[in-house]
Amino acid sequence: MEDALQYSLQTLGFRFNPFKHLEASQDPHLSEYLVGHHSFNLVNEQVPAVVLAPPGAGKTAMLIYTARSCALAFGRNRPFPIMYALPEAIGDTSQELSLDQHQAHILRRGATSLFTGLAFHPECFLNLTAADQYRVTGLLRGLMQTPPLDYYLGLLSTGNPQRLANRFDRSYTFLPLPTPQSVNELCRSIKNTDQTANLSQPSLQEFAGIVQDVLKFQKIFVLVDGIDGFAGSANNSQKAAQLINPLLEQTMDWAGQDLIIKGFFPPEVASYLAFPGSIQSILLDWTSDKLAQVLRRRVYCATDGQFETLDALCNIGLRGLENTLAEVVIPLPREIIWLANRLLLAFEQRHGAGGETLLKSDLDQAIEAYQTQGFAVRAT
Amino acid sequence: MTIKIPAYQADAFRDRPILADIKQAVEQIGNGNVQSPIVIQAERGSGKTWLSLHLHRVILKELESHPNSLLLCLAAPQELQAEKNEWFLSQEDALKLAQAGEEAITATADEVLEAGLGKLAKDLGVWQGKKPSIGELSAWILNKIQSSNEAWVVLVDSAYESNWRLLEALEERLLGALATMTNVLILITGRGKPYPWQSPYLRTQARALPLGQLGAAEAKRQIQYYDEVKQNLGITIVSKEKWEQIMEQSRGHPLANILLAQGASVDEVIDKLLDVVAETDRPVIRDYLAALCPLDHFVEDHLATMLDAYFDKENYRKMGRLELRRAVLDKLIQTNLVHWRKGGYEIDENLRHYLRSSFHDNPDQQVIWHRLCSAAANLYKGWADQFPKNSAEAHHYQEQATRFAELTPGR
Asked: What percent of chain A has pLDDT over 70?
């Protein structure tokens, strides 16, 4: 089905299907077509904040956007990003998570993120003094014990850090690749630094100190996501909040130490969260116009700017297609992306019979599928 | 009489209101924040390249803050050689990029950019070794700019209309990182469809500034300047005293203003605007544009009717939609003289104005103009009938049908 759709789309001038991925973290083109949203400013500010949004509203897309903008700068007056997704930390809500456990998970993520970031920006390490290189290496060795740092160094043996990014931190996946020589030099320098340097487990505060003092990051962003993604929490907001609250209770103390927590949570959990009342929060809401813009931006990127609306593929009887779709769906990006994909599938099925434009019947078929087969959010 | 497009000359630059906004943005560099890139999107002949050159060579040097600057022209400016801290993409390299197939394009873009970064690295005094890699060149330049603790303005001219794989390489090697530096302001100019940068700093946080046309006084001064220095620059002004009539025709469009002052006809202005189209495609593109120029916007469904009316044959109606798209629409879009805006494709406003004027100025062409208007009237009438009588669509199309019917004699 996807191959046939791909072929049909190519005949219409698309490089790829921009509606294929419902999950932002899986979409390789996300950074090309992310649309601006008024909540971006709050997320980018270097203060604690909460973004509230139901599944499919773009929380993960926004989180990736924030992490990538930090990863791209890597220092240069931007915070160091740590993406902390809860499902990696815990399997179900029968467990509990203490503050120490949260810190340990965040540190582990922080270490792999730091190593990945250095692999993409080797000069940030290579330009350090020997004493500072020793401190950074000690930090990495202390935190990366299972598997050990040498395992991660092995992943860089080709001189290309892409594999590392794909596996451990997708914030870096679209970044410019450094030269293989500089990556190899980074690996050599790390290996040559005294291997007995420091195998004790550093604290989060020590980690932050080195990231700021040595690597010159302004602050650290702890981007917390995934509270709605693990077993048991979906229908038990209170329990889900209890898991994360030991961490959120530290928000103000941590902010004083330049550790900035940014939470990306579903709205139903909000009333149970232990965020201080002074923390700014924002509801990630979507108007019909904004949703239509989501589709238009994707069409524009996928066609290399040849056109920016599905109207360009319709006959004259069908106009304002994006707005029509936006008015049909629950106002969430994932919903409209699902419906747009369904519309293209309807077109593809008929395209074999010689149709070259999107027709009203394609639209009707897609809407019917949306209304009868279940909404995208439920489907995922 | 030879009609000539003047090459950039600092004295010939005429003031533009946009300069005040740009200077203000430059003064903000160093306030500790990442600077929002400035994007200037304007039509051919609006003065984007002149603006970039003048900023780099004159204006920024005169500012109290003395920012450093780099200029990357992705279409070589006429009759100029790149000076220090400038890189002009040569016509040969542009051709090489255009002719590279899908498999070779990435390597070609890297090769072309490597030469450009090499020139800038030498100018900046950071070149080391005999044959550095593109990654090293990029790293040296970035380090130089970042570690200088001084303000920098990086100007990228003619970006959107250049090869997009080159832009991809440029973002990867230079602009993506520069956009994150607090001591750098990036200014991008281009025409046609905007390039979808990957970097959030370059895309969602960019600020668009309008370039606008020349005001009446500046348009007059432009003509006076060339009249006074004609011996040196090879520009012969024949209608200085008619500057008001010229302004009426050019509406302050800088390139047309100076061409008309040299005695150029509207057809010659159109020819110069179409210089950017490959010579072999130029006649057919001109016909397509002429056929569609009566319309403010057009979509695929307009093509066959308008082209058949223009050529007075029923050729295009026989073509399938896909065939028509490839033969006509794709070619038009590639010129970057046509762009999508608010529900349809639009020919650049100035070009559309001259195309329409060309019909009116030439009695032989009036017949074709009337045929086009009649065809448009019939087409819109047919569309209006497809919608429920009182719907907004029916009303809109009926209005268009009436408008074009009024332009058709005997209806």
From this structure: 90
Asked whether residue A254 falls in the same domain as residue A165, the answer is yes
Peptide bond into B200 cis (omega under 30): no
CB B115 within 8 A of CB B42: no
Judging contacts by C-beta atoms under 8 Å, the chain B residues touching residue A76 are: 146, 180-182
Q: Could you report the predicted ipTM of this complex, rounded to two decimals?
A: 0.76
Tell me the chain A residues in contact with residue B345 when contact means C-beta distances shorter than 8 Å: 307
State which residues form the domain around B346: 275-406
Nearest 5°: CA angle at A34, between A365 and A336? 20
Number of domains comprising chain B: 3
Is residue A29 one of the residues assigned to a domain? no
Phi–psi pair at A148, nearest 5 degrees: -75, 165
CATH number at residue B101: 3.40.50.300
How confident is the model over A287-303, as pLDDT tens digits? Answer: 999 999 999 999 999 98
A170: Cβ contacts below 8 Å, ≥ 6 apart: A25, A64
- The answer to whether B135 faces chain A, any CB pair under 8 Å, is yes
**pTM of the predicted structure, to 2 decimals:** 0.83
* Residue A297 C-alpha, separation from nearest chain B C-alpha, in angstroms: 9
Residues A148, A256 within the same domain:
yes
CA of A235 vs chain B CAs: smallest distance (Å): 35
Residues of chain A with Cβ-Cβ distance to B143 below 8 Å are: 123
Q: Tens of pLDDT along A301-312?
A: 998 888 888 988
Distance CA A307, CA A296 (A): 9
Number of neighbours of residue B250 by Cβ within 10 angstroms: 27
Round to whole Å and give the CA distance between B126 and A278.
49
Task: Look up residue A18 and give its two tokens.
Answer: 């921009």
